[in-house]
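hey so i finally got around to running the thing on that chain from the lab meeting. sorry it took forever, my laptop kept dying and i had to restart like 3 times. anyway pasting the input first so we r on the same page abt which one it is
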Amino acid sequence: MTLQLTQKEKQLLKDQTSHEKVCIQKYQQYASKAEDPQLKQLFRSYAQQEQTHLDTLNSLLNGQAPSMSQQGQSQGQGQQGMQSQAGQSQQANGQSGAQATSLTGAAQASQADAMLCSDMLMTEKYVSGAYDTAIFEFTDANVRQTLNHIQKEEQQHGEGIYNYLSSHGMYSTQ
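ok and heres what got predicted. didnt touch it at all, straight out
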């Protein structure tokens, strides 16, 4: 089935593709800059998921309606893996946290990683908000569902980053 998009819908999709490209670029760059191997892997995984989002948006722009059942299965499995990695990261931090805090270099690396995470958390908040606005502008229910699915994954990315920061004592809610 070919989608018939309005000019406004096309522009919103173009905006979202530019956001996804920024996310991909940041996650890839930050994966190479991160000191913690688990954070590197988290960023790499999120970069791959953002690429999937970009591919989906490009398909929509080309008039192709996505199949949510296939998309949900593959991306859902990837997210479960990331939640498992976040849990492993929390366990590893508990085992080696005392050692890392006693080293000045490790503290600086931790601070640098915290800055990368803070920037990505801020980025994910912005991108999720942009999806929230876009969802309400589409007439096709399947497109809205697709964008809603992507937005949920963006929120999961934010949650994963928050959990990483929190488990490493880099983010306090008090």
